[in-house]
Amino acid sequence: MAYVRSRSPKMCRGRMSDGSANPVDMHIGRQLRQRRLVLNLSQEKLAEKLGLTFQQIQKYEHGVNRLSGSRIWDMCQVLGVEPNYFFMGMNNEISDNSPRMLRYNGKGEIEPTFFLDEDPLFRAETLELVTAYYRLRPQLRELFAETIKQVVRTV
To answer: Which of 11, 69, 91, 124 has the highest count of CB atoms within 10 angstroms of its CB?
Structure first.
């Protein structure tokens, strides 16, 4: 007897009900393409660095194939970005089409333990400090960072 996997009527393995690529995967692919172009890498060169074919890069960039966590990690190492780079700029229209949101119609989500407006990384003060910090020459930046670490240790 063959095992048949049940599938949600709304989606199949992350794809949309009509079989098209999921908007979240397409967003990630656009971010990948944008970073590749900024670094002036061809699909062939990026593929070579990742041990893939350029066709696979094309499929990732168009959202046809989904990027796994380990592949995103490899991409981050080669492209010099953090994993959150791939999700930056994603609006609600796109994120509302994630497989979880499609399956559960947006219900059953875990409550966040903090809100973005409470997160110190999203405060205007933090952005101002980081912006000013990166305007410093590299040597001065290193000295400044070490000074702050020393002050924190003594407090």
So the answer is: 11
